[in-house]
Every structure is written in structure tokens, then in C-alpha cells.
Amino acid sequence: MGQITLRNVSKSFGATTIIPDIDLEIEDGEFVVFVGPSGCGKSTLLRLIAGLEDTSGGTISIDGRDVTGEAPARRKLAMVFQSYALYPHMTVAKNIAFPLKMAGESKETIDRKVAEAARVLNLTNYLERRPGQLSGGQRQRVAIGRAIVRQPSAFLFDEPLSNLDAALRGTMRLEISELHNQLKTTMIYVTHDQVEAMTMADKIVVLNAGNIEQVGSPLELYRSPRNLFVAGFIGSPRMNLIEGETAARHGAKTIGIRPEHLSASTTAGEWKATVGVAEHLGSDTFLHVHSDGVGPLTVRAGGDIGAHHGDTIFLTPDATKVHRFGPDGQALK
Amino acid sequence: MARAVTTQHKAVATIAAWVVAFLIFFPILYTIITSFKSETEAIAGFNLIPSGTLESYVEVQAQSNYFKFFLNSVILSVGSTILALAVAIPAAWSMAFSPTRRTKDILMWMLSTKMMPAVAVLFPIYLIFRDTGLLDSRIGLTIMLMLINLPIVVWMLYTYFREIPGEILEAARMDGASLWGEIWYVLTPMAVPGIASTMLLNIILAWNEAFWTIRLTTTEAAPLTAFISSFSSPQGLFWAKLSAASTLAIAPILIMGWFSQKQLVRGLTFGAVK
């Protein structure tokens, strides 16, 4: 079990408020991602749940039990840190065994569980090595191994992939998702990378300045962002946000249109634009264009569009995919 | 051209370093040389070539029992170091990992006690030792040496502990380690190089400490510093014997320092270069 409930949770460091007031419900077995820009309070929120920081107000309960004042170890949570936080003086086997040793398990149980975790994580051949002799990806797997042997009620991941290179990040992303499918344990994952959030999460919590901007499934957030912040944060490349006369024609202060919802043509269309930079990725082409009266726009076009710097193209937004926002930045129905 | 200048600079710097090192080491070297002279040679004036006689060593050993003083030195320096570490490890831990607003002040205050002239507290401490029966006792002197070196030990350990990433200790906390489990299984093993160099330095400091060891002992607990001073007799100074006694007193610590110099240099420059 791993149902986590936050009620009116707040956190201040001296006079600085990091998290003003948060309510959040995390269901058992869910993969929840906290996403937001640097300094939005997502790591602090995770550390509050872990018990590594004390709350300034509110309650945190796990499976209905109030754990607000409890020590980290008693919350039955396991955490994977950004720096891996492996014990450098212990072998891989001892690192993985450490939480079991602290729990006073017998040697046979420890050996069995360590072997099992090593098998699941492909670490069997590395058990006698020290963390210093492992690659980044292997270290990350040891950190995950140390977390899974305890069979915690939830896993907490604090930006676990940010120290890895792009290729390895992709692989580890898949591995963590597979692990979640196997274990079906609640996972809370903190990242500033919205691609990680979109690909891994059952539920995304978008944070900004300590406030929850929106909670929903990746597609909900993509299709109906509640406000300008979420609209700009979720989706890659970012949503085009247009103000002024164009927006006013849609009865809004700001309108948003995703790059993939603009169709580009070399002959005719609603907006005339000049290509600034064309990024040819093979499957797609991202065009960074400027349109008079509308402003700078990003367009996702097919791989075979032959547009280059200085070319004139015509764009037509998909009218059903235009997002409208009022003067307060909130989405209009 | 630039390369030639660099090579020249390097050569000059190397020669300068050797000259400075030689100047520092010369008094010790001259003490060792003098210890192999006869008393007549020793007072005859500056002379770098001794006759090679061992008579001073024989007389020194005949006059007083070297090994008793040596044993006291070992007990006092090692004992006070172990005691200091036992007190300083938890203290440095709390200052490094859960500092308060006053932590820096406490550290500064501890260090400031080292700036006080020892003689200023000679009488109160002497009286306390006399009244509690600690005069000329190993236990009393061990406590004294522990106390005078404690600020340095705490400072050094604090510096090492600060280098250990806090996330590793948090990981241990998440893994269910108690406070002592955290210190015992994670912090101490990771800080072993730092603890080792602190230990070595403290042993050297305690071994060489002369002010308190001479004043608070007479015979039973007297270490090698008292052994040396016992040879500056009222009849006048016997340079050769005094040199032999000094050589015997510094030899063990010099040898230990020689073998552990790598560890010591690392310890003393830790945190200075990152």
C-alpha cells in the first residue's frame, strides 16, 4: 500500500515561504511526477514527504496514518537521490544490503534479497565492486536496488536522471517505467524535464513558486492546460502564445497554439511568415518563423518541407486546437 | 622562450625550497651531530664532524630510565588522542551537519582558547591537579593534553565532515540508520582519511607538548619532554648529553612523521585546494 495524502502542507525557511499551502492526493500504485522550473519547490515537497525536512504546517499521511512528525525511516519510503548518494566505502552488495541490515534482517534473508535485486537490475556481476568503479547508469541502478530491497510503500525519486547523458537517460527512463509496471508500487518522481514527466507519469503535478498549478494525466495537461504557466511548460517545443489583435479576434487576452497544430504551406494560408531558423530533424522540421502582426512562432512541419532561412511560408492554425486565456492567465471555457 | 623561463623559475623555486627545508631541519641535524660528540668536543665550538662516540647515549641511559619516559610519552599522546576523538567526532558531526546560528561562534570561541597564554592558567590548573590528586598521574595529564588539543581536533574533523555530501547521510537516514548508525556505519568510515590525519597530528602535538607535561609531572607520569629537561642540570649544561637525550626523545615521532607524511600533508592541506 502507498496512498499519500497532503493536507494544507506548508514550508518556510525563516521568513522565506517555499510552499504556501498544498493539498494533494496520491493514490496507491500511481506514478506521480512533480514537474516545474528550478526553485519551484518540487524537491522540497518531496523531502517533506520523505521526512528529511519538517513541515511548517499541515499534515502528511501515508495509508491513512499521520506521519507528519515521524522520522524518515519509520515512514517506510525509499528514496533515490540525484547524486545517487551511494556509500562509497561499501561494495555494491553492501550498499544494497544496508537498509536490510539496519532493519535487523537475518544474513540469509539479506543475501537472498540482495541477489534478487541484483538480478532484476542486472547488477549480479558487479556486486563486489565499489561505487567508484561503476558507470553512471550502474550507480543509478545500485541506488534503485537499495530502494527496492526494503519493499517500501512508495518510492521517491529526486531528479534521478539529471546526471546521466541523453542516451542513458532514455534507457533509464524506460527501466524505471518498467520497474513501476512490475512492482506496482507508488512512485513519486521529481524532475524539471517535462519530457520525462510526459513519458513516465500516470499523473503530473505542475508546480510553480510552491503552488500547484494543475494536476492531471499527461494528456489532460497537454490538451487542456488550466492556465498560461501550464500551457507554456507542458509540450515540446513550447506552445506559441499570441497576444494583441489576433488574440482579441478569438475573444481572449492571449491565445495559445501548439507548433504541431499549425499547418505550413508554401502557397497559401491564414498568416504569412518569414522563416528565421529551420531545424531539420529528418522526421520533423521545426521552423522558427516571424509573422507580422502575430509575432515569433514555432511550427512543426513534415520532414520533407523544403523551407530555409528567409523563405516565405503561410500558416493556418487548427481552429479546434486554439487555447484561449483571459487577462488573469486562466484558460477560458 | 617562455618554456626556458618556466624551467628556470622551477629550478630557482626548487633550490629555494631545499634551502628553506635545510634551514628548518638544521637545528635537528646539529642536535643529532652533537649527540655523537664528547662533552669536550661539544663545548669546543661549531663543528659539523663528530668523533662518533656513543658515550653520551650510554651516560644518558645510565642516569635515567629512557624507556619509562618513552612509555609515558606513548601512553599520554595516544591516550589523549583517543579521548579527544571520542569527544570531537560527535561534536564535529553536530556542527557540520546540523549547524545552528551559533555554530561558527562556538568554533571561534574554541579556537580562541588556543590564543590564551598557557601560563595564565598555570596556577588554577596546578591547584586543581594538586587538590584532586592528579599531579604526576598519567590520567590527569592525558585529560590535560586532550583538553588543550581538543579545539584543533574539532576544527580539523569539522573541516573533513563538511566535505562529506549531506545526501549520503540523508540516504542512511532513509535506509533506517539511527543517529549512531549513521555516525558508525557511514560517516566514520568515509571520514577515515581525515580522522587518521587528525589522529597523527594530535599524537605529534601531544608528544611534543612541554609546558604542561614538565610542570604537572615529577617522576611517575613524566614523558620524554621532562626527560630532556632533566639534563639541563644546575652544574651547567652538558651539551652532548642534552643532545643525546633530545635525539632519543624526538626520534620516535620523527620516524612516525616520516612514514605518515603523505597522510599528514593531505590532512593539513585538506579543504584548502578543491
The stretches of 5 or more residues of chain A where confidence is low (pLDDT under 50) are none
How many angstroms separate the termini of chain B? Answer: 32 Å
How many H/I helices of chain B?
Answer: 14
For the secondary structure, the number of strands of chain A is: 18
Helix content of chain B: over 70%
Query: What is the succession of H and E elements of chain A?
Result: EEEHEEEHHHEHEHEEHHEHEEEEEEE
- What's the CATH topology name of the domain at 65-229 in chain B? MetI-like fold
Structural class of chain A: alpha+beta
Task: Provide the low-confidence segments of chain B as ranges.
Answer: none
Give a brief outline of the structure.
The complex is a heterodimer of chains A (333) and B (274). Chain A has nine helices and 18 strands.
What would you note in describing this structure?
The complex is a heterodimer of chains A (333) and B (274). In chain A, helix 2 runs parallel beside helix 4 (136-148). Chain A has helices at 42-50, 92-102, 107-120, 136-148, 166-183, 194-200, 218-223, 228-233, 245-249; strands spanning 4-13, 16-26, 31-35, 57-62, 65-66, 77-80, 154-158, 186-191, 203-208, 211-216, 240-243, 254-257, 262-265, 271-280, 284-291, 295-302, 312-317, 323-325. Chain A has nine helices and 18 strands. In chain A, strand 7, helix 5 (166-183) and strand 8 (186-191) form a beta-alpha-beta unit. The model of chain A has no long low-confidence stretch (mean pLDDT 91). In chain A, the strands form four sheets. A six-stranded mixed sheet of chain A has the order 6-7-8-3-9-10, with helices on both faces. Chain A has a five-stranded antiparallel sheet with strand order 13-17-14-15-16, with no helix packed on it. A four-stranded antiparallel sheet of chain A has the order 2-1-4-5, with helices on one face. Chain B is mainly α and 274 residues long. Chain B has a domain at 65-229: MetI-like fold. In chain B, strand 1 (232-233) and strand 2 form a beta hairpin. The radius of gyration of chain B is 23 Å and the shape is globular. The two termini of chain B are 32 Å apart. Classes of the chains: A alpha+beta (333), B mainly alpha (274). Chains A and B meet through strand 6 and helix 2 of A and helix 8 and helix 9 of B.
